[in-house]
Amino acid sequence: MLCALAGLALCGRLEAGRGWYAFWWLASFGGLAWTAVRFPAMGRGRATFALLTLGLVLRFAFVWAWPADSDVNRYIVEGALQTVGGNPYLLAPGDPGAARLLPEALRPVLARVNHPELSAAYPPLAELYCRLVAAISPTRVAFQTAAALADWGVCLAVAVWVWRTGRPAALLLLCVANPLSLAMAAGEGHCDAVAALGVALAMGAFASRRDRAGFFLLGAAAMVKYPAALLIPFFLHRSNARQAWAALLPLAFFMVYASAGGHYFTSLAAFAGYIAHGGPVAAGLRPLLGGLAPWASLFLGAATLAVLWLSLQDDRRGPIAGLTVGLACLPTLYPWYFLPVVPLFSARPGWAYWWLLAGQCLVTTPSWLRAGGLGGEGWAMAAVWLPFVALTVLGWRRPLLLVADRPFAPVARCWVVIPARNEADRLGACLTSLAPGRAAGTIAGVVVADGGSSDATAAVAAAHGARVVAAMGGRGGQIAAAVAVCPGEAVLVVHADAVCRPDVPERVLFALNRDPRLSGGAVGMDFSGGGFGLWGIAALNALRARATGISFGDQGQFFRREALDAVGGFPDMALMEDVELALKLREAGETASLGGGLTVSARRWAGRGFGPNLVRVLTLFIGYLLGRRLGLGDPTGVRHFRRYYGRPPHQTPI
Known about the structure:
Helix content is 56%, strand content 7%. The protein has 31 helices and ten strands.
């Protein structure tokens, strides 16, 4: 890894050609992945000190070796103009007044500013950063050094996050020795490193339950680079919704430049209107929509972000997915825009995001070659984004991560929990389907949670050797009561109207032991009987469970007791307990979908009518996710139960 990084640094010093640059860039990312996977076990304090020292040395090596990007010329000019009283939102570098204000020594820099006809497009905190650095030293090396120190601050913040959350030190390595950070922050001097610092500090604040500070820091990051604002809603959840107002406080930085009036976004709009490079969605839509492609890209991005915001509600998946989608839908996208992604990548390093960062060498030429063109359109863009999408989809079934997170203990056998009320006619078939697992020893025992049946449900359960636990208040309360009496390490929940394939318990145990990061998942299901509508529902259920990790109860949810206990136990809810369980399992670790194994009765879809029931389920599901995000949901599930069944929990069979 270090040899590859040295080669990448020397590429800048020697102004190597694009082929050598791409080779050493990819070699550096390959070395980073190899080292992270095989990172040696050592004392946490020793590892942290060694990695942070390495990070500082590497950053100053790139400051020495790489020439700064031409954007730094604008940083110098806009910062220097502020030191003599100029407003960068009103005074463009190409204006005659700018040359008169600047000292003679900076006029050669003024001539090298890109798009000198445009005034400042950066947010106000970025402009204040430029003013501060220019006041100290209006030179390219000063801005490279400032960006390098900001990026090393990212490493410090990630180190604190790793320490507080008990994560492995290899995650810190992914930030410390990340070639994109070294090249784009320390090497080229981009101020996006300051936005990345705000994101990393926010991660630490949220991990420490200082949510107000976390939202403020995200707002501050957005005042350095606007796309960072996309992260704010993804860190919002029911326990901190009332503290999200703190994200608005950094808007006060606009007041520093109040004399600009309505000109804050003039250059940004002009920039977006005629400069387009690197945005994959806009580039893909342009042959079809022409000039409308950027607007269509932004609309598609907003719709995708809404889906991700509802479905990815944990802090390690949602933020990085949301920011990546937002960046992909921008008309203009450069490698340094991904600097705020790096600390998020370090929190959950998937192979898809590894390739997305590694592939940036194919999209844009390095600073010393950009005079000959940016490059990176067509096949190069496809070579970056298509594998990223493919790896993302592959990760839906089984997590594809570079570094193993905190492992759970192995499991030997599982317990099966069956919630039931007035299910005497169907429960026998369900219990019979579990008999092979009990005989093979993969099922340690079966607990039927009876919700106050008036038929022979309890007798049928006892006749099949199952333990019966009485519980009222809805399905979640029944399952919670049954889980409480299960002594095993793993639990599989099967509904009473389902039939289980003989190999399901063995597959559950195999999945949990093959990947010790798994907190649980879902088996998967299809409906008894035929019909295209039911097939479509089952297919959508499988897609939702794989893509978002949110499974429904009839899909055969399974989990480790250890993982569930770490996030508060089974949700005692009258309804929507299955959705809440799935979201909790994502917070505890990784989840997996096993591809099927249960056959479920289609009685509810036949009894109420397909269309009305579909609308009712979707409305309830989306409403619950929205309420959970905003802190407006019903934690008991009683309200959702009444809406779905039209009766209180204890009166309705489940």
